[in-house]
Amino acid sequence: MNAAIRAAVRRGWELGLETLGIRRGYAGLIEGDLSPLTPRDVGGIIEFGGTFLHTARCPAFLTDEGRRRALATIEKEGLDCLIIIGGEGSLQGARWLSDQGIKVVGIPASIDNDIEGTELAIGVDSAVNTVVWALNRIRDTALAHERVFLVEVMGRESGYIALMGGLAGGAELVLVPEVPVPLDEVAQKVLSLYQKGKHHSIVVVAEGVTAKVGSTDMIANFLRERTRLEVRVTVLGHLQRGGSPTATDRILASRFGAQAAEDIKAGLFGHMLAWQKGEIVRVPLEVVRRKKMAIDLRLYELVHQLAI
Ligand code: F6P
User: At the top level of CATH, which class does the domain 127-241 belong to?
Assistant: First the structure.
């Protein structure tokens, strides 16, 4: 997100726009916590994850009172337009603001990659690369000790990170919320690989699957009992949402940020910028209402076809 903010501020500056940074997203909008940003203020941030403006889950923005106060800040500060960077919740908020007559441009950012209308969101590539980095290390122990590893990755409702991380990391199995698989089958698959001479397995488990079953530890216990193999669990957690962003992420975010400034200058509002077929396009904010099916089932097949 830092790269997107940097690009919006700097491109906007060149186009004669004055940009203010709102701290902690909608919370800052409600509280009027904002200040001007110049090109110098956004220097030295492109290499950091997260956002230097901070962010917050903001239940208050779902209340009438919170929304009234947000609109009051926009009025009081004389904000002509908002650039809203975030996931489905943030973009739903953008849509609501747009419906109230506020000029907004949305930028998709969610490591889950489940935002309808865009093939890629900011943060996704870095998160997937972190998973691959972790799987590379975990495989050493899995191979040396001939163990089964369950690696839990983020994705409350989406299996994208699990699938892409698992595919790139050479996992034997991925468990995603979009494709329910009985644990018996998981045990069977691990055992059949073992019988074919593969004495280790890496099973990538999306958080959304874990939530349904109870916990990844419970899956591990089940596998231990059924397979009699040594099973270990690693939960990657918030490791996936930090660290220096990949080049792909920085480039995508820079393009989104600069385009947002250009759209504002051109008087184009009420849309989310999106990535489709190698280009930045504009999609109506209404599209964001539904979460997209984040995974490509052909790739899901491929992971398992290659795990022999
Ligand atoms: O929405 C993105 C996401 O990464 C989910 O996959 C994950 O469950 C959640 O955020 C974690 O959120 P928090 O940091 O608030 O615990």
Answer: alpha beta
The residue contributing the CA closest to ligand 1 atom 9 is 156
Residue 112: active-site member: yes
The answer to whether the CB of 111 is under 6 A from ligand 1 is: yes
Tens of pLDDT, residues 19-77: 999 999 999 999 999 999 999 999 999 999 999 999 999 999 999 999 999 999 999 99
- For the segment 200-223, what is each residue's pLDDT rounded down to a tens digit? 999 999 999 998 889 999 999 999
Backbone angles phi, psi at 144, to 5 degrees: -65, -40
Ligand 1 contacts CB of residue 178 (under 6 A): no
Q: Where are the domains of the chain?
A: 2-123+245-287, 127-241
pTM for this model (two decimals)? 0.96
Per-residue pLDDT, 92? 95
Class of domain 2-123+245-287: alpha beta
Phi/psi region, residue 33 (left: phi>0; alpha: psi -120 to 50; beta: rest), is beta
Cα 268 to averaged position of ligand 1 atoms, centre (Å): 31
Residues in the chain: 308
Phi, psi at residue 293, to the nearest 5°?
-75, 110
The response to whether residue 156 sits with its C-beta less than 6 Å from ligand 1 reads yes
Cα separation, 27 vs 70, in Å, equals 9
